[in-house]
Structures are given as C-alpha cells and as structure tokens.
Amino acid sequence: MAVSFEHRRTVPAGVDVVVVGVPSDRLESAGVPVEALTGQGFEGKVDQVATIVRDDGTTQVFVGVGPSAEVDVLGVRRAAAIAARACARRRSVALTLPELLPTEDRVAAIEAIVEGSLLAGYRFVRYKSDPSPVGLERLVLVDGTSVDGDDREAAVQRGRRVAEAVALARDLVNTPGGELTPALFAEAAVEVAERENLQVTVLGPDEIAEAGLGGLLGVNRGSTNPPRFVELTYEPDDPQGSLALVGKGITFDSGGLSIKTAEGMMTMKDDMGGAAAVLGAFSALAAVAPRCRVSGYLPLTDNMSGGDATRPGDVLKIRNGKTVEVLNTDAEGRLILADALSLASEARPDAIVDLATLTGAVEVALGNRIAGLMGNDLHWIDEVRAAAERVGERVWPLPMPDEYRPRLDSEVADLRNISKTKDAGTITAAMFLREFVGAGIPWAHLDIAGVAWWGDAAEADVSPGGTGWGVRTLLELARTFRSES
C-alpha cells in the first residue's frame, strides 16, 4: 500500500484523472453538460461511474453518490473505493470527494477516503508468477476548506493504518491452510506484537495441556501440526476499563472424522477469519488509541482426520471444568472458543466479544453481507451493533430463547457440541458458547461465517477472497469503549 496522499485546495495540473462525486439531485454540479452524463446512462445513483475526456485532454471520472441529503462518511468511503477501482491503471488521481460533506465532517471524510481507496486496491498476489501491476501511486485530496493540517495528516495516517490492518486479516485468510499452520500464525502475531509494543504470550502443546485447554487439544488430535494459543495485550497509560477480544483460529477445517464434502472444503482456509480479524485489529490499536486495556485470545489449530482424531462420542473437558460430548467433529470451532472464552473470563474483563466463522446456518439466514450478533447483555449487544454500523459492517441481532437450551443436554456429559435438532443452528451454537462465559460479564458473539469470505465479483473495497470483516468493528469498539464499573 505504497500510495502517497497529499492535500490541495484546488485540482493540480498534471494529474491523470480528476474524480468528481455527483449527487443524483445535483447533476448540474458536475461541471459538464448534463447531457454528456445522461447520454452514458449516468444519473448519479450510488456506484454509477461515467468517464468524460474534456476538450483540453483532461480525463474526468464521475461517481454517483445518491441523493445529496443522504451522503455521509460511509457513502464517501464507498465512492472513493469505486473511484479507485475505476482508476486502477492510472498513476495519479485527484479526488474532490471531501467537498461532498460539510466542513465539520471533512476530517472523517479524509480518513474514510484513504481507507476506501487503499482497500479497493488490495490484491493477494503472493502466488502469482506474473502479478498484474497496479498503477495508482498518488492520490490528491482536493478540499478548499481550512481544515487544520495536523488533523488532516492524522486522518490520513489513521485511514492508512486501518486499511493495512484489514489487509493483514485478508492476507491471513487468503493464505492456504497448508502454509499458514498454527505455528506460523503465532509467529505472525509475535511480529505484530513486537512492532506495536504489545504484550504477547504463545502457548505450545505442553503449555496448552497444562492450562487444561481440552477443547483445543481435542480438535487438534487429528493433525500433524501442533496447536498454539496466543494471548495479546494492549495497555495504555492509566487504562479505563478492559475489553477482551476472542477469535476462532481454525487454520483449515476438513471437518475431522465428520468430514466435509470436497466442495465444502474449498474455502475452509477462511475458518480462522475471527482470529485474523482480532490480530488485524491489534495491529492498528495504537492508531485509534483506546483508553481501555484490550486483551486478545487466539486458539489456533487445524481440524484434520488423522489416525487419532477425536471420534464422535468422545468427551472433552474444557478449561472451566465443563465436559462436552463431541457428536459432530465438524462443530469444532465452538470447542476451541470454549477454552478461549473460559480463559478470557478468568481475567474478569468489563466485556467480551468473540468473532467466529461458526455456522453455515448464519449464511442461510443472513447471506454474505450481514453477520449474526448474539449475546447475554442487551446493552452490550447494542454497543457492538452501533460500532459495526458506524464503520459500515452490517450485523443483525438474533435471539437466544431459553427454551432452546435443553437441545444441548447430553446423556453422558455436561453438554453436547451440537443441538438435538437441525434448526436454529446459529442460535444453539451461540448458546453453547454462552456456557463458557463467566457470570456477570457482558458478552457478544459475532457469527461471521457468511461475511468473512467474498465469493462474488469485486465490489467497491472488497475483492474475491478474505474480506477482513470485523477489523473495523473491533477498532471502533475499542476506540469508544467505556467501562460502566
């Protein structure tokens, strides 16, 4: 992400393209005859793009942003991403997009433009023998207001750091499971911690056994790659409260002995999307400067079907002492999260949020653009939802009715790892996790199985593959977190 950003009050000479945001009710503001735009079918609707070459040879790209009254920071962010895609082969681009918003919103707009334009340029080309070059090198932010230069530069840097954090999560998800082993994921976490001056602890197999993380050990039994458990801590001076982030880290999921189909395995390198999002967020915490202490818990293993893999009917003992009858080894994520939530609870944080590519059922219910949100505290659920909405990551709350809880009762252990019925799979999975959250601790669960992977054509700031979903939500949640104690 070597694109440079600069500020100008007017469009400078010599740029390859000038990008203009056009509200649907203000086509005349584009500065060209309306007929020149409407002749291309351009009406200023969101995501519409039209290109015009002026008589003087200047190329202008017009991006629709919808009704002017509805344009906000997120809309400008999306417009910047659309523009960056449209200009991907150009070297220098001037964007007048900040001027779509009132002066008081310009700093936020600049941050959003930087973030959106950088993420639109994301490509995972590690394994390409001849990756296609991306030409964009210079972005000029055109803003005629007197926004303080330090504020503007800080906004640029925050936007860049957030984009880099999302890109890190995407890189992790896109890396094949045969390469990104638990050990290498843990090494990546240590690199982030050393660079960002975070506290980090990595547990290997012996330490995991000593810690009583039976869920993690049980899932790992079929693998030749030893597990890891990573703890990260960000601690500001005089921390105001504490927040725990937990991420599911299945580096590849074959389903274990309850093996998936070949098609079902094709994207299972994304089953560590929750852990990737947590690590991505930690890589940029300093940029958003939370006032709270933030702890991260990453249980890492793949789920394979080796000779001593956990069998259906086996019983595992989780860190908090509860026992689980494993009746489907493909419901493994909740087993490693049970250990992580137990450990997180022992530190008595003011709140916990976990992210997990947990159930296929959530994708059936909500598709690939909305994550499922559940929890044990309505106020905390509302805070998580509000944070996600502010950064444009959509969530939808689902209930956890008590009458569903008996579906997890086991005849031989405290719990079974799957419901007795085939319906409400997302809800009963969350209810299973709730059993491992300490009493009195607000907890929220984000099921990101649908949103962690983008299988459609590139759109705005999202490319096919890992999305890095959740990084922005976690950063916003940490930035705004206030303890009520």
Q: CATH H level of the largest domain: which superfamily?
A: Zn peptidases
Give the overall shape.
elongated
Structural class: alpha/beta
Mean pLDDT over all positions:
95
Strand content: 15-25%
- Taken together, the total number of domains comes to 2
Say how many strands there are.
Answer: 20
The main β sheet shows up as:
9 strands, mixed
How many helical elements?
Answer: 15
Q: What is the CATH T-level topology of the largest domain?
A: Aminopeptidase
Give the name of the CATH architecture of the largest domain. Answer: 3-Layer(aba) Sandwich
- Helix-residue proportion: 25-40%
Question: Which residues sit in consecutive blocks of at least 5 with pLDDT less than 50?
Answer: none
Distance N terminus to C terminus?
A: 41 Å
Radius of gyration using CA atoms only: 24 Å
* CATH C-level name of the largest domain: Alpha Beta
Describe this entry's structure for a reader.
By secondary structure, this protein is an alpha/beta fold. 33% of the residues lie in helices and 20% in strands. A hairpin with a 5-residue loop joins strand 12 and strand 13 (323-325).
Spell out the key features of this protein.
elongated, Leucine Aminopeptidase, subunit E, domain 1, six-stranded mixed beta sheet, 485 residues, 2 domains, alpha/beta, Aminopeptidase, nine-stranded mixed beta sheet
